[in-house]
Design brief:
With 389 residues, the chain is α+β, with helices and mostly antiparallel strands. It has eleven helices and nine strands. The structure holds flavin-adenine dinucleotide. The site of flavin-adenine dinucleotide (FAD) has 21 residues, from strand 1, strand 3, helix 10 and helix 11.
Length: 389
């Protein structure tokens, strides 16, 4: 079997047949089920919900988790390849999967009780239930430690008040992992269930990016949450940050998919499109753009593979993930822009995917830690001096 996509440095030789088969499955799902409808959903600003159980059936959600909880115990590189294929389709499609797996299933698996795991993980894995992750607030994005959402103990329950902003899948979620501060200002994670009194969500409209994805605001007004819905095995900001490390891993791989789709579109267009009597791919200036893309995609692939290897050997540090998220999103964003240039006027049309990727990648550049925040994480790692404040 061969790696699907540009393989300048023989990535195929670093992957197992099982990993390549998983890539093929995800690739076929995206081409057959998603690409025919993506423009319709992008235009109307929503997500095709019937694809969620289909992705569950294919094993995309929480795929590295134990089979006992609905996972498939696949390698981190295989999981990365799924993310890559989904984001070749659209960053919104990959977001659904990385939120469900990295931001909802992971904290329940890692920090939840056995009852919480048994109740939610199989449902989330199969796509019968949808999850969301509520960390960001309207006044606290890059600095979640300043969150205002409060959880106050009342007998065996907690009373939660506050709101969360920019929450992927918020309004369709059956379970929300919500982070709140207790009376001693300690950050704690809670599982809020759809229908709990005082817990509501409304969708955010007017996005010019990641349109084929549902983004919501969550409101909590005196929501009574039993202590059995608290994630007992974690406290402090390291809880949500460790979840973000999982989801950022998905982005480090996924963004390569968007870059590949832009590169392949531009390469093929540049061979067909003629100006001044020859294909535009024959001009040095066009080749320089295409070469930038293949160079950066190849480096991003090698980096992603190493992140996967480190993850499986237990040696992955969150600063490695920052490098992957920061670099791979930045090169995807630049590749989308260059690809759009190569396509000329056609590049702005929805007949091609490049403008959609370009718009989406503005979100991807910002969420899950902005490009600047990942620079600061790496800066602290190498100097031992935090420069956040
Ligand atoms: C479509 C979409 C979906 C999202 N989904 C989710 C979700 O499911 N769950 C969730 O919890 N959140 C989600 N987010 C929120 C996202 O994680 C935040 O937008 C992100 O953390 C940045 O926060 P902010 O937008 O408030 O920007 P700010 O934190 O206000 O940052 C604004 C600018 O200031 C810069 N900046 C901030 N601090 C510093 C500093 N110390 N030094 C230098 N520069 C700095 C930033 O890099 C950025 O350029 C989503 C966002 C979007 C757009």
């Amino acid at each position: 079997m061969k790696y699907i996509g540009p393989d300048f440095c023989n990535i195929t030789s670093s992957l197992t047949d099982e990993e390549l088969l998983i890539q093929k499955t995800a690739n076929e799902f995206v081409s057959q089920e998603f690409l025919p409808i993506v423009n319709e959903y992008y235009e109307k600003g929503s997500f095709p919900l019937d694809l969620i159980p289909k992705m569950g059936e294919l094993g995309f959600f929480g795929a590295t988790l134990p089979k006992k909880y609905g996972g498939s115990e696949i390698s981190s590189n295989a999981y990365g390849l799924i993310m890559q294929e989904l984001e070749k389709g659209d960053s919104g499609l990959r977001s659904v999967c990385s939120v469900q797996g990295g931001l909802v299933m992971f904290p329940i698996y890692q920090y939840g009780t056995e009852q919480q795991k048994e109740k939610w993980l199989p449902l989330l894995a199969s796509g019968e239930a949808v999850g969301c992750f509520g960390l960001t607030e309207s006044n606290n994005g890059s600095d979640p430690g300043g969150m205002k959402t409060k959880a106050v103990k009342d007998g065996d329950d907690w009373i939660i008040n506050g709101s969360k902003m920019w929450i992927t899948n918020g309004s369709i979620a059956d379970v929300a992992v919500v982070w709140a501060k207790d009376e001693e200002d300690i950050v704690r994670g809670f599982l809020l269930e759809k229908g709990m009194e005082g817990f509501t969500a409304s969708d955010i409209h007017g996005k010019m990016s990641l349109r084929a994805s549902i983004t919501s605001e969550l409101f909590m007004k005196d929501v009574r949450v039993p202590d059995s819905n608290r994630l007992p095995n974690i406290e402090g900001l390291k809880g949500p940050l460790s979840c973000l490390t999982q989801a950022r891993y998905s982005i480090a791989w996924g963004s390569i998919g968007a870059a590949i789709d832009c590169y392949e579109t531009a390469l093929s267009y540049s061979k067909d499109r003629k100006q001044f009597g020859k294909p535009i791919g024959g001009f040095q200036l066009t080749q320089q753009k295409l070469v930038y893309m293949i160079e950066e995609i190849t480096k991003a692939q090698l980096l992603a593979l190493q992140l996967g290897n480190l993850k499986d050997s237990g040696d992955l540090d969150f600063s490695h993930i920052s490098l992957g998220k920061k670099n791979n999103v930045a090169i995807a964003r630049e590749s989308a822009r260059l690809s759009r240039e190569i396509l000329g006027a056609n590049g702005i049309m929805d007949d091609y995917s490049v403008m959609r990727h370009m718009m989406n990648l503005e979100t991807v550049y910002t969420y899950e830690g902005t490009h600047e925040i990942h620079t600061l994480i790496m800066g602290q790692k190498i100097t031992d001096i935090p420069a956040f404040e």
